[in-house]
Design brief:
Layout: E1 9-14, H1 16-33, E2 38-42, H2 45-49, H3 67-71, H4 73-89, E3 94-98, H5 101-113, E4 117-121, H6 132-140, E5 143-146, H7 152-157, E6 162-164, H8 168-172, H9 177-180, H10 182-189, E7 197-201, H11 206-223, E8 229-234, H12 237-247, E9 257-261, H13 264-270, E10 273-277, H14 280-287, E11 292-296, H15 300-309, H16 317-322, E12 329-331, H17 337-348, H18 354-367, H19 373-385
Parallel strand pairs: 1-2, 1-3, 3-4, 4-5, 5-6, 7-8, 7-10, 8-9, 10-11, 11-12
Helix pairs in contact: 1-19, 4-5, 10-13, 11-12, 11-17
Length: about 375
């Protein structure tokens, strides 16, 4: 007679919108496979909808670069120790850190020393940084789950258990979605079919919007008559209010902006071109087959540190995955509105080339898994937790 499996307690900490998206699918699939599981930790509204109970607001972990964590260090340290004690007291079978690498890898190290198995979901960009960092990860993480297949090699080379689970967006978005859904999405948003539309995605973090938002809005002003409608999806209600306040500084955009509460995919689907911050949104725009211009800005101190540590040639995910420049990038001081506006105009004036679309398709297929990524991730997590 087999021994009954005990009820699992799984600790999770997700940061930001992207972590909440991944975490919600993970919570759903773990609950499906193990209905009596108990969750503890931090999650966002999508995870909560799946039955997760969050200790604090997910916004607490929304930090950007190096300086932001330093400025908020006292509150982050208090939260770090609170979660460590809470998770240890819960007798968790394992801990899953979802994104928020700075915070979650510190927490994973603390919990690992106390005998709790640890999984990290979404690899830090160790392939873009000097390799010393991976030795610290190896001491803290029992399993690394990656979204992109090329990321596994660096972990395998350093004897870190790793599994490529696939990117959920590659399964959610069909190759023809951006083209077939453009007309009905415009109708849904009250945008005329003959309008020239640019979607602007300035980021999900407060600091990102603060640093890059004005670059994007100044670019929109310079586009003038070339564009009749700008659609800006705010990642959450706080970002909506932040962007709304920022728009008051740009009267030249009056009557030309549709500000949405969420609905980033709809905004991109309705667009002709996307003006986007670095991150997952660049991948989503690529999967929707939307031409894009990518820009990213961090604080000067952060950039000074990062520029000396990062070894990668590109920042936009489509460029990294393609191994060449297929998306124009404007990083830090290069994020000049006049240059960005010129790049948007060029994309508006030309149709997508077959070469770029073919590359988008190749990357899309590379990211797809035969098994649903959420189910694949849940299987991997349960394999660690039940061991």
């Amino acid at each position: 007679m087999s021994t009954p499996r005990h009820s699992l307690t799984i600790a999770m900490v997700a940061g930001e919108t992207s972590g909440d998206n991944l975490g919600s699918a993970l919570v759903k699939e773990i609950t499906r496979a193990s209905p009596d599981v108990t969750f503890v930790g931090v999650g966002g509204p999508l995870m909560i909808k799946e039955g997760f109970s969050s200790e604090v607001d997910i916004e607490t972990l929304s930090v950007n670069g190096f300086v932001d964590p330093l400025l908020r260090l006292p509150s982050l340290v208090r939260l770090l120790f609170h979660l460590r004690d809470r998770i240890v007291a819960s007798e968790a079978d394992c801990f899953v850190g979802i994104d928020s690498n700075f915070f979650n890898l510190l927490l994973a190290g603390m919990l690992h020393k106390r005998g709790i198995k640890t999984v990290h979901y979404v690899s830090p960009t160790v392939w873009a940084w000097r390799q010393r960092r991976i030795r610290k990860i190896a001491r803290s993480v029992d399993l690394m789950m990656t979204l992109y297949p090329f990321e596994t090699a660096v972990y395998e080379a350093n004897n870190v258990p790793v599994v490529f689970v696939g990117h959920p967006k590659a399964d959610e978005i069909s190759p023809d979605e951006g083209r077939l859904n453009q007309a009905p999405t415009r109708e849904q948003l009250g945008i005329a079919q003959d309008e020239v539309v640019v979607a602007i995605l300035p980021g999900s973090r407060s600091r990102e919007v603060d640093l890059s938002g004005r670059d994007f809005l100044a670019t929109a002003v310079l586009l003038g008559e070339s564009v009749t409608r700008f659609v800006i999806p705010a990642a959450n209600r706080k970002r909506y209010e932040q962007i709304e306040q920022m728009l008051s500084e740009f009267p030249g955009l009056d009557g030309k902006v549709t500000l949405l509460d969420g609905q980033s995919r709809q905004a991109m689907t309705a667009s002709n071109v996307v003006l986007v911050n670095s991150g997952t949104a660049t991948l989503e725009a690529m999967l929707l087959r939307k031409p894009m211009v990518m820009s990213y800005r961090v604080g000067k101190i952060t950039y000074g540190i990062v520029s000396r540590l990062v070894t990668t040639e590109w920042f936009a995910l489509p460029n990294i995955l393609a191994g060449r420049t297929i998306v124009p990038e404007f990083i830090q001081d290069a994020a000049v509105p006049s240059e960005m506006a010129a790049a948007v105009r060029r994309l508006l004036g030309e149709k997508e080339t077959g070469d770029v679309v073919a590359t988008f398709d190749e990357i899309h297929q590379l990211l797809k898994k035969s098994v649903d990524p959420g189910a694949e991730a849940a299987k991997a997590v349960l394999g660690v937790c039940e061991n």
